[in-house]
């Protein structure tokens, strides 16, 4: 599914709406170039999930945990040096835990990801605030989210 966002406000609205729909066990994979808006989208997902803390990119720590209506696990694997680092973090406890996972640069660890994920590929548009988001997945949960977003 392709969604065109014409402004930062559109990006925030998408993130808040999507965040409000997420359930325990959902894994969102955010991919895109530097500056595409992965962290901006994550911040608005957090708003939709009821996170009151300021969300920052965990570029150097690999993962930040937040509390909202459920735990939110925010990964940034851009600087990941090897898959072994994920093992050291106990990633599967997060992936199969009590909360929602949001993973920036998820394409770097796609072999480690569970099957039922929702992928958001973000591309910069021609204007500075324009973005194109391609949402893909194959699970029933993915289809349910598209229906609830009203973009099937």
How would you describe the overall organization of this protein?
The chain has 152 residues and is an alpha/beta fold. The protein has a single domain, classed as P-loop containing nucleotide triphosphate hydrolases (Rossmann fold). Helices cover 31% and strands 25% of the residues. Strands 1-7-6-2-5-4-3 form a 7-stranded mixed β-sheet. Strand 3 and strand 4 form a beta hairpin. Helix 1 packs across helix 2. The termini are close together. The model has no long low-confidence stretch (mean pLDDT 90).
Number of E-type strands: 7
- In the CATH hierarchy, what is the class? Alpha Beta
Order of strands in the sheet with most strands: 1-7-6-2-5-4-3
What structural category do the secondary elements indicate? alpha/beta
What kind of oligomer do you see?
Answer: single chain
Name the average pLDDT. 90
Helix content: 25-40%
